[in-house]
Structures are given as structure tokens and as C-alpha cells.
Design a protein that fits this description.
The complex is a heterodimer of chains A (305) and B (425).
Chain A: H1 2-18, H2 20-45, E1 48-49, E2 57-58, H3 62-69, H4 71-102, H5 109-117, H6 124-139, H7 150-178, H8 182-190, H9 195-206, H10 208-224, H11 227-232, E3 238-242, E4 248-252, H12 257-267, H13 273-299
Antiparallel strand pairs in A: 1-2, 3-4
Helix pairs in contact in A: 3-13, 4-7, 4-10, 5-7, 7-10, 10-13, 12-13
Chain B: H1 2-20, E1 30-34, H2 40-54, E2 58-62, H3 68-76, E3 84-86, H4 90-96, H5 107-110, E4 119-120, E5 126-130, E6 134-141, H6 142-147, H7 158-170, H8 172-175, E7 178-180, H9 191-197, H10 199-208, H11 224-236, H12 252-257, E8 261-267, H13 271-276, E9 285-288, E10 303-305, E11 309-312, H14 318-333, H15 335-345, H16 359-369, H17 385-400, H18 405-423
Parallel strand pairs in B: 1-2, 7-8
Antiparallel strand pairs in B: 3-11, 4-5, 5-11, 6-8, 6-9, 6-10
Classes of the chains: A mainly alpha (305), B alpha+beta (425).
Chain lengths: 305, 425
């Protein structure tokens, strides 16, 4: 009987085993067409001068040289790094705090969770415009506007991103918090651990996987930010600089990397398209490298439950 | 197993690329990537009419406001790229010159009455030809102006314009309308000031230098005081709080259309919308020059020029190029085509142009026939035009919120030099 069963299962499995490529094919094809191919082509284009992708002409490393010599790009990089770092900390602290509060036994947690999550459902461009109206509504009373000061743009974007992302990260943290084994918490209680000790020694080590995911997401989100940046300030205010060597640059003081790449590609004529492409490759390496490093760092702290 | 997988994958890719391959018939087709959102509806209808008439397929797609360059880039990369597109200024020739079919001696080129709007590349190839021209200035609602106690003829220069505008603004409550529409610096409207209004100082700078044949390496501060004067007049004599101009939400066209303001700086292309969407009458509309206080400006006319220039995609198949040239020829010679061109774009520089009832063009013609000088579109020389304008808008925004006018001058002068350097390195 038992042998029969096994034979039957093997018989069922054989066609699947033999024709797995057929099942894999649609996804693999989509992945190749939608990701691998454009990605490789993008790298190739970063070494070319081009107007559209089919009239590319090889120019070598010139684009990369132009990219790293572009003062606006360097500025955007530093600005983006600062923003990503600050938003990483603020978003995660807030999201964890909210998640912690909403997993306590208080009334209305369901409603609060929904309310906090909802901003995530609105698109970035719309959010940017709505918040620019909100900020200007307040700043106007002080005779200023979000477009006038770099720091307003910075903190405005930070508030916007928190508002949008805290709810999302909160959901991940709630899932993590609910998975903390009850027996550990009970043991801590019996041992007379204070609330703070329980949080630090029991809860946080147990939600480390959530922290890994959330820091990963908020870090890469911070770096890749585009829509909100475009709609909220679009890079304003600008500063026009002349340097000692006679070269000049327009620094868009709230322009982040992704927007800088976009503006280089479309704002500066076909001469700059290769440069923009090189910037995009640098951008990819940066984001990929950073997130891998971050993953490794937080993974090391995870504990097996 | 591995080999089988790879062969399956290759087969699938081949199949897909097979689908994408062009299936050109004997007859070519036309794909027009249109530049003017406001003309989209009429052009779609025209495309259908042309297909009914000749059997040639015509597709018209329209890029969103301010997105022509990015849309064109994406479309040009496709196997079915536009056959007819717009190359309207020197920067565009620089970018798209290689894609332009030489239009010299084509039948449609021979129909042109002037080469004023023809764009050439460095080798002298005819890259694009004007299919319509335009004028811009300050659009006036004559009915409201008269209700406020003035005539169009009262405005002859900047001082008289200021007197009238300030008087209307002071009495706005009582009159029920204001002098100027909002001068929104939102991206849907900012080009009116960073592009069109900026043309005034640029034009006079160029005139002092005997005209520009190409973009100068740098520009000066000259006439920027005049730019400031007119800008101050706009923002201080309108219902909109200057400090709110960068915040989205203003719609100057509807303010003017609903009769909330007398003056509206914009161009001839506004006419169809004002008449069709807001029910304004042709006889209550006219256009006056943008006066800024430059000596001798009482002899100025409107700003006549165009960025509406047709280019034909040189990479298209021979049939498609022929079909496109035929279509263009039909547009500027057939009664149906010329009528639509006149309605949508105003007068066209072709022998068989139909008459237009657009009052703005009539005003433009009147100024010229009275011996006034044409304020040409020198802004078409702007290097990296989008980036340069963004800098001016940013500085104007700062200025409206109490910032220093110096920033605007820097955005003009240093911005120009910076972008020239970036575009020509």
C-alpha cells in the first residue's frame, strides 16, 4: 500500500520535474525583458553619447568623468545621504513607537492602525502638492514659503516622508511584535524585569527581523526618493555659484539624486544624456552597496526565536 | 536540461521580437507627435477625416504640457516612431538634428511664403519648417476695460499701462474685477514669465548687439530693471497674493475667461479656449504689446514668432516619409486642412493660408502695418532652456516672498553663462 502511494506520487511528479522550464519561462522571460536586458543596456549606454537608445555612439569613460565633476551631482549626493540617514532614524523610531503603543491593550487600536496606514495609499506626486499647500499655508503667516529655504525643504520632505511611511513600517513592526513568544515575556515578568528591561532585552532582539526589513526599506526609499521631491520643492531654492577656476554651476539646494539624474537627462539637451546615464549607474551601485552593507549589519543582530 | 531551458528561452524571445517587427504594407502611414495639448481634439478629428479621404492611416498623439522632450525621446526609441514631430528652437535642432529629414525642395517646403521660421542645422540642412506662427503680448478684455472707463488706445507705453492697471486694482472691489490675472509660478504657468516675459529684456539686449544669430556665451544685466517693473506691476495689481504664486491652484485662463481680470499675459493660442470654453466674443478681445518702460517702446508691436516647426523623421521608412510629406502638403493646401490650421493655430506661412478670425493676429498685423517693430522670439536661443527657466522661476519665487531682486538678475545672467557652458562643453 505504502509503496503504491509513493509510486503514484512519483508518477505525478515526473511531468512537473521534466517540464519545469515551461513553468519558469513566463517569469524568467518577464524578468529578462523587464529587468536584465534594460539593466545591461543601461550600463552600455552609460559609456555612450546618445539621443535615443538606438543611435548610441561609444565614448568611453567620458560620461563618468563628467558625472563626478558635476558639482550639482556631488551636492545632491551629500544632500540625499543626509536625508536618507535622518529619515531612516526618524521613521523607524516613530514607527516602532506607534507599533509598540498599538500592540498594548488599549481601545481602538484597529482604527488607529488603519488611520496610520492610510497615507501610504496616496501617490507621491499628489502628496507632494498637497503638502506644499499645507506648508505654505502655515509659512505664509511668517512671510515665507517652503521654496525659499533649503532647510524648510529638507524638513518639509522629512515630515512628508514620515507621514507617508510611518504607517507602513508600523504594520511590519506590529507583525514582529505580535510574534514575540508569550512565554519569554511571561518569564521576564516572573523574573521581575521592568518594562524597559523587557523591551530592551526581550522584545527588541525578537523583532530584529522586522527592524532589518524596515531599515532596509527606509534607507533605500530615502535614496530613491523622486516623486515627492519633484512635487514638493522641485529642487528650489537654487544657488548660482562661480568657482575659483572660472567654472559655474547651478546648485539646486533641495534636489536629490534621482531628481538630479532626471533633470540632467531631460533638462540639458542630448549632450548630457550619457552623463545622466552614468550618474544612474553610479546611483545604482551606491544604493545596492549601501543596502547590502546595511542588511549584513542588521542580519548579524537577529536572534532565532 | 540546461540546454533545453536556454533553447526554450531563446524561442520565446524570438517569438516576442517577431511580434514587434514592423509589418509595413505598401502604403505608408503618418504618426504626428503633437506639441500643443489645446489642439489635440481638432487634430484627432482631422486625422480621421484625412484617413476617410485618402485611406492613409494618421495617428496623432499629444504630449502633456511641458513633457514634449521626454515624450519625444521615448517615442523616438520605438520601432513605430513618430514620422512627424516638432523641432522648434536651436536647442532642439542640436538634439534632434540627426533625425530630421532634409525638407529642402519638398512640395510642402515650396508652399512656404517665408523662410523666417525655417530652422537649419550647422550644415545648412532644412531641419524643420514653421507650420504656424504665433504672437504673444498682453491679452485685453475690452469690455471690462471700457467698464473701468478706459480705451485700448489709452495704453501707449509702460507708464500709461501702469496708470490704468493701478487704477483698476485700486477700484477692484467696486468694479468686481481686477487688473491682472494671477501670475502663477506653478509649472503650468511659469513659462509665461521665465520664457515669454523674459523675451522682452533678451530682445532688447540682442537688438543693442545688432541681433543674435546664435546663443551668446553670456548676457548682461541690461533691461532687467524693465523686467522687474513689469513683474511688479503684474503681481501687485492682481487679486492673487504675491506670496502664494508658487503654490499650485491658480488658473489664469479661467480667471480671464470668467471676467475676473482685464489683462492676461499670454498668446494667440489662447483664443480657441477663451471663445469655446468660456464663451468670450471675438470682438471683446485684443492684444497689446508688453510694455516695460524701454525708451521708444511706444513703437513696439507684439512678439511674433513660432516654435511650431514640423520636422520629418529621417529614420522612418521611405513610404512613411512620403505619406507624411503628402499629409503636410494637404494640411497647408487643401481647404479643409488650411481651415483647421487657421482655426487652431492662426495664420500659417503658406501660399494658400485660410483667413483667421483670431483677433490677436489681427492686432499683430495692425501693429506691423502701422509701422511698429516686431519683437522677435530671441528666447529661442536660450541654452538648456528648461534648466535656465527653472532657475529664473526659483528666483522669481524668492523675490515674490520678499527676497532680493539680485537673485533674479543672477538667475538670468549667471544662469545663462552656466547653462551655455554646460550645453557647449
Amino acid at each position: 500500500m505504502k509503496r503504491n502511494d509513493r509510486a503514484g506520487r512519483a508518477l505525478l511528479r515526473r511531468p512537473i520535474r521534466r517540464s519545469w522550464p515551461l513553468f519558469l519561462l513566463p517569469t524568467a522571460a518577464a524578468f529578462v525583458i523587464g529587468f536584465v536586458w534594460p539593466f545591461l543596456q543601461g550600463i552600455w549606454l552609460s559609456f555612450c553619447a546618445f539621443t535615443t537608445t538606438n543611435n548610441a555612439r561609444w565614448v568611453g569613460g567620458e560620461n563618468y568623468l563628467n558625472a563626478v565633476l558635476d558639482r550639482g551631482f556631488i551636492y545632491s549626493f551629500l544632500y540625499t545621504a543626509l536625508f536618507a540617514l535622518v529619515s531612516l532614524v526618524v521613521i523607524n523610531v516613530l514607527a516602532f513607537a506607534v507599533a509598540y503603543a498599538l500592540t498594548q491593550k488599549i481601545r481602538g487600536t484597529g482604527i488607529f492602525r488603519t488611520v496610520f496606514f492610510m497615507p501610504n495609499l496616496i501617490g507621491g506626486i499628489v502628496l507632494g502638492y498637497i503638502w506644499s499647500i499645507l506648508f505654505d499655508g502655515i509659512l505664509r503667516a511668517y512671510h515665507t514659503s517652503i521654496l525659499l529655504e533649503t532647510r524648510y525643504g529638507f524638513f518639509g520632505l522629512l515630515i512628508l516622508m514620515c507621514w507617508q511611511q510611518v504607517g507602513y513600517m508600523m504594520i511590519i513592526y506590529i507583525a514582529g511584535l505580535q510574534a514575540v513568544p508569550e512565554h519569554m515575556l511571561e518569564a521576564a515578568r516572573i523574573d521581575g524585569a521592568s518594562r524597559w528591561q523587557t523591551l530592551r532585552r526581550v522584545t527588541i532582539p525578537n523583532v530584529m527581523p522586522s527592524i532589518t526589513i524596515c531599515t532596509f526599506l527606509s534607507l533605500t526609499n530615502g535614496f530613491k526618493l523622486f516623486d515627492q521631491n519633484l512635487a514638493l520643492t522641485g529642487g528650489a531654492p537654487f544657488r548660482f555659484r562661480t568657482y575659483a577656476d572660472g567654472s559655474m554651476a547651478t546648485i539646486k539646494t533641495t534636489e536629490m539624486l534621482a531628481l538630479n539624474i532626471y533633470n540632467t537627462f531631460y533638462g540639458q539637451g542630448s549632450m548630457a544624456r550619457g552623463t545622466a546615464q552614468a550618474k544612474a549607474v553610479i546611483f545604482f551601485l551606491l544604493v545596492a552597496g549601501l543596502s547590502l552593507a546595511q542588511l549584513r549589519a542588521t542580519r548579524g543582530r537577529e536572534v532565532g526565536a | 536540461m540546461k540546454r533545453k531551458f536556454i533553447s526554450l528561452l531563446l524561442a520565446a524571445l524570438l517569438g516576442l521580437s517577431g511580434c514587434a517587427a514592423q509589418t509595413d504594407g505598401e502604403q505608408g502611414s503618418v504618426y504626428w507627435l503633437n506639441f500643443k495639448p489645446e489642439a489635440d481634439g481638432a487634430l484627432q478629428q482631422l486625422a480621421r477625416d484625412y484617413t476617410d479621404l485618402t485611406g492613409v492611416k494618421v495617428k496623432v498623439a499629444t504630449a502633456a504640457q511641458g513633457q514634449y522632450e521626454s515624450t519625444l525621446t521615448a517615442e523616438m526609441d520605438k520601432s513605430s516612431a513618430p514620422t512627424l514631430f516638432v523641432v522648434g528652437n536651436a536647442a532642439a535642432v542640436k538634439t534632434w538634428g540627426d533625425y530630421c529629414y532634409d525638407l529642402r525642395d519638398t512640395p510642402v517646403y515650396k508652399e512656404l511664403v517665408t523662410d523666417d521660421y525655417t530652422l537649419y542645422d550647422e550644415g545648412g540642412k532644412v531641419c524643420s519648417i514653421g507650420y504656424a506662427y504665433e504672437c504673444f503680448g498682453i491679452i485685453v478684455n475690452k469690455t471690462l476695460l471700457e467698464r473701468a472707463g478706459y480705451q485700448v488706445s489709452d495704453i501707449r507705453d509702460f507708464d500709461s499701462l501702469r496708470r490704468v492697471a493701478e487704477d483698476i486694482h485700486a477700484r477692484a472691489q467696486q468694479l468686481g474685477f481686477d487688473a491682472f490675472t494671477s501670475s502663477s509660478l506653478d509649472s503650468s504657468s511659469a513659462w509665461r514669465f521665465s520664457g515669454h516675459l523674459a523675451n522682452i529684456p533678451l530682445f532688447y539686449q540682442a537688438r543693442d548687439k545688432g541681433g543674435w544669430s546664435s546663443a551668446p556665451e553670456r548676457i548682461e544685466n541690461d533691461y532687467l530693471d524693465n523686467y522687474k517693473a513689469i513683474w511688479d506691476l503684474y503681481i501687485n495689481n492682481s487679486a492673487a497674493d504675491p506670496r502664494t504664486l508658487a503654490t499650485p491652484g491658480y488658473d489664469a485662463q479661467s480667471e480671464f475667461g470668467r471676467g475676473e481680470a482685464v489683462f492676461y499675459q499670454n498668446g494667440s493660442w489662447e483664443y480657441p479656449a477663451l471663445v469655446n470654453d468660456y464663451g468670450m466674443k471675438s470682438e471683446e478681445l485684443t492684444m497689446i504689446p508688453i510694455y516695460t518702460g524701454v525708451p521708444g517702446e511706444e513703437d513696439a508691436g507684439l512678439c511674433n514668432g513660432t516654435e511650431n516647426c514640423w520636422a520629418v523623421n529621417a529614420n522612418a521608412s521611405q513610404q512613411d516619409i512620403q505619406a507624411t510629406l503628402d499629409f503636410m502638403y494637404w494640411m497647408v493646401t487643401s481647404p479643409q486642412g488650411t481651415k483647421l490650421m487657421a482655426e487652431q493655430f492662426g495664420p500659417i506661412p503658406y501660399k494658400q493660408a485660410a483667413k483667421t478670425d483670431n483677433p490677436f493676429f489681427n492686432a499683430a498685423a495692425d501693429y506691423l502695418s502701422d509701422g511698429n517693430y516686431n519683437v522677435t522670439w530671441v528666447f529661442s536661443h536660450t541654452p538648456n532652456v528648461d534648466d535656465w527657466r527653472a532657475g529664473v522661476v526659483s528666483a522669481l519665487t524668492q523675490y515674490c516672498n520678499g527676497g532680493d531682486w539680485k537673485n533674479v538678475e543672477t538667475a538670468f545672467v549667471s544662469g545663462w553663462a552656466t547653462q551655455y557652458q554646460a550645453a557647449n562643453n
